[in-house]
Design a protein that fits this description.
Layout (H helix, E strand, L loop, with lengths): L1 H29 L3 H8 L11 H32 L16 H30 L7 E8 L2 E8 L7 E6 L7 E5 L4 E7 L4 E5 L4 E5 L5 E5 L5 E7 L12 E6 L1 H13 L20 H4 L1
Parallel strand pairs: 1-5, 4-10
Antiparallel strand pairs: 1-2, 2-3, 5-8, 6-7, 6-9, 9-10
Helix pairs in contact: 3-4
This protein binds copper (II) ion (CU).
Length: about 290
């Protein structure tokens, strides 16, 4: 009689827990819009907007799937060992398995294999993302400055613009970056002061913006839309304000926008300061 009461009192909280888990899961799933569900399918990544993003996206998804498979396997083993080898009698100690050489070799080889596979795919993705486009059609020279961005559109050779045009962002007005859809763009990144990092989340890519050490990457925007670019390096007091709007537009719209900047008199290139005179740390001759 007493035993049955104990059983019942254990079962009831168990049922309540199961019911509340089911209820919260239903609530969570029913609250999911299609966008949220799609974002889950990308393991939290935004919708890609460049030709390079799928390489990172596949690496990201693959790494999550591999981690989950390994995780479920290890959790299963842990659970199995806990139940299978639990203490059945007072004072009993399970058989200990120390200095088991084959097991220890296995413990070493398996993680090395896992890391090697991840390393292989990481290097492959890195090479694909960092590959220079053959003959980029557009070049944008970017300057990161405390605490905004300057964009120079190097369009002298573009017959429908024929000039270099710039836009300087400030803390009061975040700048707009216009990019033509489907055409390769080369970004050259310069810093006017400290380390920044140029990041467009929809490109699945960011690159350091360093004083005295120009960086560069190529990308072809693939999806028309407006996105938010950011600085991804904690660079000082107003780091969080280092935002910029990214407008991926048709080639005609792009040309029109750049011409509009030119008509406002924003022609010529804004150059980053030279760091060669500020000491050995930023000696451009040494840094190449
Ligand atoms: Cu910054």
């Amino acid at each position: 009689m007493e035993r049955r009461n104990v059983g019942r009192s254990l079962r009831t909280p168990g049922r309540i827990a199961a019911a509340s888990i089911a209820a919260s899961a239903t609530l969570l799933l029913s609250g999911c819009s299609k966008d949220t569900a799609d974002q889950w399918a990308r393991w939290g990544m935004p919708v890609a907007a460049s030709d390079r993003a799928p390489h990172i996206g596949n690496l990201w998804n693959g790494a999550w799937i591999a981690s989950m498979v390994i995780g479920v396997f290890v959790w299963g083993l842990i659970g199995w060992v806990i139940f299978r080898y639990r203490r059945k009698h007072e004072g009993e100690t399970p058989r200990q398995n120390r200095y088991n050489l084959p097991l220890e070799i296995l413990y070493t080889i398996v993680p090395v294999l896992i890391i090697s596979v991840l390393f292989f795919f990481t290097v492959q993705a890195q090479d694909a993302v960092g590959k220079k486009a053959d003959g980029p059609v557009h070049t944008v020279n970017v300057i990161g400055q405390k605490w905004s961005w300057t964009f120079n559109y190097m369009e002298d050779a573009n017959s429908s613009i024929g000039a270099t045009v710039h836009e300087v962002g400030t803390l009061e007005k975040i700048p707009d970056l216009y990019l033509p859809v489907g055409e390769p763009v080369r970004f050259n990144l310069y810093s006017a002061d400290v380390d920044h990092s140029f990041w467009i989340p929809e490109f699945y890519y960011k690159l350091d913006v360093l004083p005295g050490h120009p960086n560069s990457f190529d990308v072809t925007p693939t999806r028309v839309g407006t996105y938010l670019g950011k600085c991804a390096e904690l660079c000082g007091t107003y780091h969080s304000a280092m935002l910029f709007n990214v407008h991926i537009v048709s080639v005609d719209e792009y040309n029109a926008k750049i011409k509009e900047l030119a008509s406002k008199g924003q022609t010529g290139e804004i150059k980053p300061p030279s760091f060669s005179a500020t000491g050995p740390l930023y000696d451009s001759k040494k840094e190449g």
